[in-house]
Design brief:
Blueprint: E1 7-11, H1 16-27, E2 31-36, H2 39-53, E3 57-61, H3 67-79, E4 84-89, H4 100-104
Helix pairs in contact: 1-2
Length: about 110
C-alpha cells in the first residue's frame, strides 16, 4: 500500500524498535520525519531509507528527554506545513518518576 502524501514521525528512529518501525513505514510508502539526538546517525539512516524505499525523509535532531524539545519538534514540523498521519514515540527513558511502583502507589 502506498502512502505517498502521508507522513509518519518516528522519534528514536535511528536504532532498535524505532529504526525497525521506520523501515516498515518507509516500505509501506510513508514519508518520514525521524528524530533522535545524534545528527550523524540521523543523516546515515535518512540516506539509507531514501535510497532503499524512495521516500522523503526529514531529520530533526532533538533530545526529547528535555520536555521543551517535544514542543520544539512539534513547532518545527508545524512550521514546515506537514500534516502528521502517524506518530511513534520511541525516544523515551524510564526514570524513577515513571517506575511501576510510583505509578501504582506501591513502594
Amino acid at each position: 500500500m502506498e502512502h505517498k502524501n502521508e507522513y509518519a514521525v518516528v522519534t528514536g528512529g535511528t536504532s532498535g524498535i524505532g529504526y525497525e518501525l521506520a523501515k516498515l513505514l518507509a516500505k509501506d510508502g510513508y514519508n518520514l520525519i525521524i528524530s533522535a539526538r545524534n545528527v550523524d546517525d540521523l543523516e546515515k539512516i535518512s540516506k539509507e531509507l531514501k535510497q532503499t524505499y524512495h521516500v522523503e525523509v526529514l531529520v530533526i535532531s532533538k533530545d526529547l528527554f528535555d520536555p521543551e524539545n517535544a514542543f520544539a519538534l512539534y513547532n518545527e514540523i508545524k512550521e514546515k506545513g506537514i500534516q502528521v498521519d502517524i506518530l511513534i514515540n520511541d525516544q523515551v527513558r524510564v526514570s524513577t518518576v515513571c517506575s511501576p511502583t510510583r505509578i501504582s502507589g506501591k513502594n
